[in-house]
Design a protein that fits this description.
This is Nephrocystin 3-like N-terminal domain-containing protein. InterPro entries: AB_hydrolase_fold, Ankyrin_rpt, Ankyrin_rpt-contain_sf, NPHP3-like_N, P-loop_NTPase. Keywords: ANK repeat, Repeat. The chain is an alpha/beta fold. Helix content is 47%, strand content 8%. A 7-stranded mixed β-sheet has the order 1-5-2-6-7-8-9, with helices on both faces. Strands 11-12-13-10-14 form a 5-stranded parallel β-sheet, with helices on both faces. α31 packs across α33, α34 runs antiparallel to α35 and α62 runs antiparallel to α63. It starts with 18 loop residues before the first strand and ends with a helix.
Length: 1492
């Protein structure tokens, strides 16, 4: 659209493919960050992180050649802001827009795009530009957008070969050191550059870049086009020059350079990197910083969140750049206050943070001391040996060998003996909470300990954005692994001379891939510490697997260590109290030999033998020892099978510990076992009768002593060692307990645990009777809407019934108290409510049917219990909630499939997110969404093959991707809209097919669009092969005379929300209105229309209805054509232009231009030719289009490129004029070099043709065009001395408004009139002087013909003008010119010196007095000299300068005709006015002269 004036630039939702786009623009920016993509890149996609769910674009399934691009959906700027958040949800994280403005709130963010495709699947690129051209265009555009603030600091962020464009652009800017200051300002304002995988080095840089370009082509999957690359890249000589110049430029200007290098290779290159490390740096450590990004070449510049550790590296790099830029102080984000920082720190803590460490028994008093004397341990602590092992000690041993006990002993000893050094530790626990067995939990624990030991390190959190806080001041976000790793690394690097000792136990109890990444992180920290002299020591322990190679590390294996064997002996002597007889000593010797270094085996056997001894069976000890198997697995088997008493309790206890969804507390496990073995005894917990001691004995008996309580605040029951779990699940231990369960132990276990939960839910709870009564009375819950969760707001169950509201619990305090009562009296209730469906899901997955469970399940009772236990109101359900909705929210795909077979359709209404599928989408439950989209009867219908996994079906992930990407749009749509209706209105063909294939969607529906009164009715008369509904009708509820106004509001609304199919039907609806059909006829043509799935189907429908052609007026067709242009519908444009060409006169030319720019870029020449053909026959339209083409101000494809294509497709440029001004003149004035070249090459034009002001193209180019245009015009024979009506020649304009190069170019022209005067008497020299253009004045003075003493109409010479402007630089140049009249008088008789003194211009006076030919005693017409004027104005410094001239006349006064004041000499004036110091100086000077 055209715009008047210079409004504040608009922020775009998606950057333009070509040119500069504004991404973020704060109120008062003081920094510009500019992103530049690489070859074959894109200003958005290069920097866009799509995430796991978004990895496959929904657009990929479309195969409609006439479909308009998705980015054209955002046709109006007024809708861009409202779409920004929606676009983010659909397309992933575009970090220049979504992350950087938060990290740099004062930065204006821009993205530059250019056409540099390395290859094409269907043919070569049509771009004729090289890197030099891209850089030049970039420089000019950047200067234009920064013209109001040219000194604002600049930071460039470039990816891959885009870094070459940035360097070339800066080289061009740097070359303007003495001219074109506006272009020079770019390099002067540059603070630094961040390169992502940019190739810099190499003896043959062009060969290197060709290789890199080929690698990039392979990586993105396009055919490498060698010819294209050769045309893009500069010569090897130019590249070497660029490589060699960047260093000196950076040092001179103080640029800070940060080179990020790719850490991973790519599969397409057999694991090799696209740009190797040796090439992706400048190779000058004093100039640059290098750092690796943990990704490949394409992924290294894409980040998913603020917490992404790689993103934090970039933010840190920018922050390092800014303070170095000439002392520049760029406002930074306000530091965290205490509450914000403490919220981050508190959020690192989790309930089980010390669980494993606390549960490990302390070492026996006589064990572990041997380690302190081992050379391996001593070397690990010795600072002088750190280079040998980088601070690494790894203790390994078999399961149960005592590694954890040993590390706990080491930790305790170090805390007592090494003071002043922070000691942090973490003990992995595979049997615990997810935080206890994950590296996320480890980093959280280690960071918390670091911040508590060394509070100064808390500053490492400052790289994070401001934390989202709850009303109580708690951090509401979630920690990401990448963020934790980055903060931990920064904190360790800042540890300083304090040093650090870090102990991590049981690496084998964490996921292997996570452990490998963690070890690599610690290894890098160890290397860095060794290189920098920091004392960082790391101690790991694990079993002998997984084996992870570490370059430098001390390894200590417990088995076979003499000290370890002595520890076993010490423990045995201390704990096995069976006397000291010869037999007993023999038993101890046998026992010690059989330990095989396994401490746990010894502990368990000692307990068994001690029990036998305590029973008085001393004689049986030796036999019992013989019966005990030698290994841990055999020992566990013996323990579990030797006593068959209470076998069912044992099995259920093991099942709960193995398969519970979370570790159970003592009281939870007690009632969980009772719920499965003795449900008749269930009821409220009587704590006086069933004490913790009773529960402990019960659990100990059920588990045969293989379980223990964790020693934490919230104690849970776990196996005594991870080897117990390994024995049961991996060692086939279950076969020895229940052989019949082996076939499906997991499924049968979950089935039994589900029944336990169900039994517990069935017990009566008197406290809930009021709620039950409310439900039975038919009270329904309020419909809950999506929104922020609130703590116990309102009631648990309530309804509106007339004027009465029933409430079971009405106050916050009531619901909180009830929840606490239930949790204390019914300890297992919370687990049973929250996980009964999870166990049913797990059982169903293994093939155990759940029909009976679903049929018998008391949903009302479960709902009431769930609502009481839920703290937040939005998580509660109404009494009418369906199981399908619950399964969708809980992400239970197997139960969803099962339930779908029983319900009539999936669009069951109610609850917060209206229907189940929308709930699954809101929670991003991908597995649940896939279950909803599976086709019906997939086992029997050949059209829908079995879909065992998402990866085996191409359609499933695509539809799921569409829903996840468009989550925000879908949820913001009207609540009565089903997902199917939303898909129809958007025209999501694949999703519509998938939903219809389920057989569980409601097809017949009628909804009203918000605010506009349009009813969309979907009906299905028959089904075709693709299961597409065959009929759709749209009716307007408002009066028919208002229909057109609604139409113009509805179209942008539909396009803004992506309702493409609705958009097409609205156009067809409008056609019916414009046709003035009767209401019955209108209804008939609207109802007899199939879904218009593509733009082509819309135009086909228009072609089929031949009765429209003669009945629609030209203006009506113009309205439709405007819609086609504005919303980028090429088929509609083609159809209307072909059949109604006169409608072009009714279309805003701006809309046509936007359309042409987009479709020229797409090479859509058919549409282009149609529009051109009509433009050639319509002079008015042609002129409007030409003027807009030339005067376009915002970024667009190259005007020259568009012009070439327009001309190639028939556009008539020959003789074209705009308002009587030749096209050549317009193009020359508008800096359209390519268009000028095109006109001169292919059109017959008079190069000296004048406009109405008598100006030629050369004059206009000199005034506001480009140097390139001037060269082309001069080469074409332009007259360099041609004067316009004002008498100005091209040199006049160049001297006053142009750049130095223009003046230099014209001065080299043969027979140039360098002294040409305009109507005001100004020569080019006088104009340059008035413009204070030193460089231009210097160029003009170098010309031998220039007359430096020519006067203007006011009698001023160039020197007089320079003095008046106080321009000492220009005056100095003029005074150096031979023949200059330094004493020339203006029309008032004032010389340059007198003018300088009267103007109090001390530097100018000094400059003039340095030239002896300047007359110091010259007088004005009144006889007043320079000294006289200086004394009258009390100008001490100027008087001193004048008195330094030996020829100064001290008595110089005024003639007799002047008044009495003027008659006085300078000395008399000084005395009369009291200028004592001046008088003294004058008297001294007079005495000196008299003495001479």
């Amino acid at each position: 659209m055209a715009s008047n004036g210079n409004p504040r630039p608009k922020i775009v939702d998606e950057p333009a493919t070509l040119g500069l786009s504004l991404i973020a623009n704060p109120e008062h920016p003081n920094l510009d960050v500019v992103f530049v993509h690489g070859f074959n890149g894109h200003p958005e996609r290069t920097w866009l992180h799509r995430g796991d769910a978004n990895s496959q674009s929904s657009d990929s399934s479309r195969d409609y050649s006439d479909e308009r691009p998705r980015k054209i959906q955002k046709a109006f700027d007024s809708f861009k802001a409202s779409r920004s958040r929606t676009s983010r949800d659909r397309k992933g994280v575009y970090w220049p827009r979504d992350l950087l403005p938060e990290s740099l709130p004062y930065a204006r963010v821009l993205a530059y795009g250019y056409d540099a495709h390395l290859g094409h699947r269907l043919g070569p690129s049509h771009s004729q530009k090289s890197v030099y051209d891209f850089a030049k265009d970039f420089l000019l555009e950047l200067e234009a957008v920064r013209r109001s603030h040219p000194k604002r600091p600049l930071v460039f962020i470039a990816h891959s070969l885009g870094g070459i464009v940035v360097k070339e652009m800066l080289r061009q800017s740097y070359g303007h050191l003495d001219h074109q200051t506006e272009l020079r300002a770019i390099s002067e304002s540059t603070a630094g550059i961040i390169f992502f995988g940019t190739p810099h080095g190499g003896a043959d840089p062009q060969s290197l870049l060709k290789t890199i370009a080929e690698n990039v082509a392979w990586a993105v999957g396009v055919t490498f086009n060698k010819q294209v690359v050769e045309s893009l890249l500069p010569s090897s000589e130019r590249l070497r020059q660029l490589r060699d110049e960047i260093g000196p430029m950076a040092r001179t200007r103080g640029w800070i350079i940060h080179c990020f290098q790719e850490d991973h290779g790519i599969t397409a290159l057999n694991g090799r990197k696209v740009v190797e490390d040796i090439s992706s740096c400048l190779g000058d450590a004093s100039l640059e910083l290098t750092q690796h990004i943990a990704d490949d070449h394409m992924g290294m510049c894409r980040f998913n969140s603020f917490h992404d550790a790689e993103y934090q590296k970039v933010v840190a790099a920018i922050n390092r750049i800014l303070p170095e830029h000439n002392g520049l102080s760029v406002p930074t984000r306000t530091a965290f206050n205490n509450a914000e920082r403490q919220a981050y720190i508190n959020s690192l803590r989790f309930d089980q943070i010390d669980a494993r460490h606390a549960s490990i028994k302390s070492a026996h008093s006589k064990t572990g001391k041997w380690l302190l004397k081992k050379s391996e341990y001593l070397d690990w602590l010795a600072p002088e040996r750190q280079d040998e092992h980088n601070g690494f000690l790894w203790i390994k041993g078999k399961a149960g060998s005592g590694k954890s006990t040993m590390l706990k002993y080491i930790l305790s000893h170090i805390n007592k003996t090494i003071l002043g050094t922070p000691v942090i530790s973490f003990f992995f626990n595979a049997r615990g909470h997810i935080m206890e067995r994950s590296t996320i939990g480890m980093y959280r624990s280690l960071l918390l300990q670091l911040f508590e030991h060394v509070p100064e390190l808390q500053s490492a959190l400052d790289v994070l954005p401001r934390p989202p806080l709850s009303a109580t001041g708690e951090f509401e976000g979630e920690w990401q692994l990448e963020t934790l790793v980055g903060i931990f690394q920064d904190a360790v690097r800042a540890i300083g001379e304090r040093g650090l000792i870090c102990i991590v136990d049981a690496l084998d109890e964490c996921h292997e891939d996570d452990v490998r990444r963690m070890v690599a992180c610690f290894e890098n920290l160890g290397k860095e510490a060794s290189e920098s002299g920091l004392q960082v020591r790391i101690c790991f322990s694990s079993r002998h697997y997984p084996y992870i190679t570490v370059d430098r590390c001390i390894e200590l294996v417990l088995e076979g260590q003499e000290g370890h064997q002595q520890d076993l002996a010490n423990y045995l002597q201390s704990e096995l109290k069976i006397g000291k007889s010869q037999r007993c000593e023999k038993i101890k010797e046998q026992l010690l030999r059989r330990t095989n270094g396994i401490f746990l085996w010894l502990v368990l056997v000692v307990q068994i033998l001690q029990k036998e001894f305590d029973r008085g069976r001393v004689h049986a000890l030796e036999n019992r020892l013989e019966e005990i198997p030698p290994g841990l697995d055999e020992l566990f088997r013996d323990i579990l099978t030797r006593d068959t008493r209470n076998a069912d309790d044992l099995l259920l206890c093991l099942q709960w510990i193995l398969f519970a969804k979370r570790p159970l507390r003592r009281e939870e496990l007690y009632f969980a076992i009772l719920a499965g073995t003795e449900p008749q005894h269930l009821g409220p917990w009587d704590a006086a009768e069933v004490t913790p001691t009773v529960m402990d004995r019960f659990i100990l008996d059920c588990s045969k002593g293989l379980t223990a309580l964790t020693r934490t605040k919230n104690q849970t029951v776990q196996f005594i060692h991870e080897s117990v779990r390994d024995y049961l699940l991996k060692g086939n231990g279950l076969a020895h307990i229940r052989q019949d369960l082996l076939a499906n132990f997991s499924g049968l276990s979950h089935e039994r645990l589900k029944l336990c939960c169900q039994n517990y839910l069935a017990i009566g709870i008197p406290e809930l009777e009021p709620i039950h009564a409310t439900i039975e009375a038919g009270v329904g819950g309020p419909e809950q809407q999506p929104g922020n969760e609130s703590d116990d707001v309102g009631e648990i169950i309530s309804c509106d019934n007339g004027d009465h509201e029933m409430s079971a619990v009405t106050r916050n305090q009531d619901s909180k108290q009830l929840r606490e009562i239930l949790c204390s009296r019914y300890p297992f209730l919370d687990y049973a409510v929250n996980h009964v469906f999870n166990h049913a899901e797990a059982a169903l997955v293994t093939g155990i049917l759940q029909e009976v469970f679903i049929y018998q399940f008391n949903l009302a009772a479960w709902t009431s219990r769930n609502n009481v236990l839920q703290k937040f109101k939005t998580r509660r359900y109404s009494p009418s909630v369906t199981l399908l909705y619950i399964f969708a929210e809980k992400n239970l795909p197997a139960l969803i499939r099962d339930e779908l077979s029983r319900v009539p359709h999936m669009d069951l209404r109610g609850e917060r997110f209206v229907c189940p599928l929308r709930a699954a989408i809101a929670h991003k439950n991908e597995a649940a969404i896939q279950a909803f989209l599976e086709p019906a009867d997939r086992d029997r219908d050949a059209r829908y093959p079995s879909i065992p996994t998402a990866s085996q079906d191409g359609r499933r992930p695509d539809s799921v991707s569409v829903l996840l990407q468009c989550k925000a749009e879908l949820l913001s749509s009207a609540k009565e809209w089903s997902v199917f209706l939303w898909a129809v209105l958007r025209g999501e063909v694949g999703l519509m097919n998938d939903l219809l294939a389920t057989g569980k969607v409601v097809i017949h529906c009628q909804v009203t669009t918000p605010h506009y009164g349009i009813i969309a009715e979907i009906s299905q008369k028959s089904t075709d092969a693709h299961l597409m509904p065959s009929g759709i009708s749209l009716e307007i509820l408002s009066r028919s005379d208002d229909s057109r106004a609604y139409f113009h509001e509805l179209l942008p609304w539909a396009m803004r929300h992506g309702y493409q199919l609705l958009f097409r039907h609205l156009i067809w609806h409008y056609v019916a209105i414009l046709r003035d059909f009767s209401v019955p006829s209108r209804s008939r043509i609207l109802s007899d229309v199939r879904l218009l799935l593509t733009d082509r189907e819309l135009t086909t429908l228009l072609c089929q209805r031949t009765d429209l052609e003669g009945n629609l007026k030209v203006k009506a067709w113009g309205v439709l054509l405007s819609v086609g242009f504005q919303y980028q519908v090429p088929c509609l444009v083609k159809h209307i232009v072909q059949h109604n060409p006169l409608s072009l006169d009714h279309v805003p030319v701006e809309a046509i231009y936007d359309f042409l720019v987009q479709y020229v870029a797409q090479r859509d020449f058919d549409t282009l030719r149609l529009v051109i053909a009509e433009a050639n026959g319509n002079t008015t339209f042609q002129t409007r289009l030409l003027r807009l083409l030339i005067c376009r101000t915002y970024p667009a494809p190259s005007i020259g490129a568009i012009s070439r294509i327009l001309m190639a497709n028939g556009f008539e440029f020959n003789g074209a004029a705009i308002q009587g001004v030749p096209l050549l003149s317009w193009a020359s004035k508008a800096e359209q070099d390519e268009l000028v070249q095109l006109i001169l090459e292919r059109c017959s034009v008079d190069v000296n043709a004048r406009d109405s002001e008598g100006q030629t193209a050369l004059s206009l180019a000199a005034f506001s065009g480009s140097l390139t245009t001037m060269k082309m015009l001069l080469d074409a024979g332009a007259d360099a001395n041609c004067q316009d009506k004002q008498g100005a020649a091209p040199l006049s304009y160049a001297a006053s408004t142009g750049h130095e190069e223009k003046v230099e170019l014209l001065l080299k022209t043969t027979h140039i009139n360098v002294n040409v005067q305009d109507n005001g008497g100004d020569t080019p020299l006088l104009r340059a002087v008035r413009g204070m253009a030193v460089a231009k004045v210097a160029l003009l003075l170098e010309h031998q013909d220039v007359d430096v003493n020519i006067r203007d109409k006011d009698g001023d010479t160039a020197l007089l003008g320079a003095v008046a402007l106080r321009d000492e630089s220009v005056a100095s140049l003029l005074l150096k010119r031979d023949g200059v009249d330094a004493n020339a008088q203006d029309k008032d008789g004032v010389t340059p010196l007198l003018r300088a003194v009267k103007g109090k211009r001390h530097p100018m006076v000094k400059l003039l007095l340095e030239r002896r030919f300047v007359d110091v005693n010259a007088r004005d017409p009144s006889g007043r000299s320079s000294l006289w004027w200086a004394v009258c104005q009390c100008l001490d410094k100027i008087i001193q300068l004048l008195l330094e001239r030996p020829d100064i006349d001290l008595e110089a006064g005024a003639p007799e005709l002047c008044d009495s004041l003027q008659k006085r000499s300078p000395l008399e004036i000084a005395r009369r006015r009291g200028y004592s110091s001046i008088a003294t100086i004058l008297e001294q000077r007079m005495r000196q002269k008299q003495g001479q």
